């Protein structure tokens, strides 16, 4: 399974999906910040796919994975099924292919898994 992810991310990089050095547009950075503000530390609020995780995936990330990875980052069921593999790539900085997520977003994804992958 790791080999499949490595192939997909290599294809993504070679496919010309390089944008900014940080890998985030002002649109996704704003969404990331807004999503993290939705969670108040110490409240016991659980991270959910719809409110917190789905907004982290950009349209080009979704398109690339549909084309090369044969799964859909916009679908809860696909992301939940591949969550551990996705987390591995996020932690290594291999996803998205044009730059790593901020650590706070990786931590949020990890917490989503820990919370039981809430829809």
Labels describing this entry:
119 residues; mainly alpha; 7 helices; 59% helix; globular
Can you walk me through this structure?
- There is one protein chain.
- With 119 residues, the protein is an all-alpha fold.
- It has one domain (2-16, 25-36, 45-114).
- Helices cover 59% and strands 0% of the residues.
- It has seven helices and no strands.
- It has helices at residues 2-14, 26-38, 49-53, 59-69, 76-81, 83-92, 103-114.
- Helix 1 packs across helix 4.
- The longest helix is centred in the first third of the chain and has 13 residues, at 2-14.
- The radius of gyration is 14 Å and the shape is globular.
- 24% of the residues are buried.
Draw up the topology in text.
Blueprint: H1 2-14, H2 26-38, H3 49-53, H4 59-69, H5 76-81, H6 83-92, H7 103-114
Helix pairs in contact: 1-4, 6-7
Rg for CA atoms: 14 Å
Amount of beta strand: under 5%
Instruction: Assign the structural class, choosing from mainly alpha, mainly beta, alpha/beta, alpha+beta, or little secondary structure.
Output: mainly alpha
Largest sheet: none
Basic shape: globular
Query: Based on DSSP secondary structure assignment, what is the total number of beta strands?
Result: 0
Question: What's this model, at a glance?
Answer:
59% of the residues lie in helices and 0% in strands. The chain contains 7 helices and no strands.
